[in-house]
From TrEMBL:
It catalyses: N-terminal N-formyl-L-methionyl-[peptide] + H2O = N-terminal L-methionyl-[peptide] + formate. This is Peptide deformylase. Its EC number is 3.5.1.88. Belongs to the polypeptide deformylase family.
Length: 186
């Protein structure tokens, strides 16, 4: 199982590499990696398990974060209330943003990353709406459109596949300065 010991931190070269495409049919290893990534997210969001395993919570995880330079991301975005089903629970292989809104958005609270052991305050300006093409575990290609918080998280994960860290998008001179047409998501 994946724990924080398996998550590489900033400074590790794999975080700055462009990850390799996954080929199909999936190898047993790639299938196992995908399953373990999703299991990590679920564990990290379970108060008891996270406390026992000392896990930081995450709503997404990219394979490069466990030093696997492959284009695999796992997303587990909880529903609004405790017993609601997740907003999104999915592993995407070879995800690609194929189109996006002109409009931009950012999270009011900024972003965090399991590979970054420090707070980096500032608005991370991203596309407010995206269309993502990806393959599922059977290699079937899908197209999905996301907006709001989900779109932000998906972009954070796809950035990891391209060696981009969230703070690369923060304006160092004015971390909270944004154009007036940028949507600030609560
Ligand atoms: O790459 C994934 N992580 O580093 C997992 C930890 N970060 C988060 O869950 C997280 C927190 C806030 C905003 C965004 Cl967009 C994300 Cl993604
Ligand atoms: Ni991250």
């Amino acid at each position: 199982m994946i724990t924080m010991d398996n998550i590489i931190r900033e400074g590790h070269p794999t975080l700055r590499r462009s990850a390799d495409l996954v080929t199909f049919p999936l190898s047993a290893e790639d299938r196992k990696i995908a399953t373990e990534m999703m299991e990590f997210l679920s564990n990290s969001q379970d108060e008891k398990i996270a406390a026992q395993l000392n896990l930081r919570a995450g709503v997404g995880l990219a394979a490069p974060q466990i030093d696997v330079s492959k284009r695999i991301v796992a997303l587990l975005i909880p529903g609004e209330y405790e017993d609601d089903p997740p907003e999104l629970a999915k592993v995407m292989f070879n995800p690609k943003i194929v189109s996006h809104s002109i409009e931009s958005a950012c999270l009011k609270g900024g972003e965090g990353c399991l590979s970054v052991d420090r707070e980096v305050p500032g608005f991370v300006v991203r596309h407010s709406r995206i269309t993502v093409s990806y393959q599922d575990a059977e290699g079937v290609t899908h197209k999905a459109r996301y907006k709001g918080y989900i779109a932000i998280v998906v972009q954070h994960e796809i950035d990891h596949l391209n060696g981009v860290m969230f703070y690369d998008h923060i304006n160092e001179q004015a971390p909270f300065a944004v154009e007036d047409d940028v949507i600030i998501i609560e």
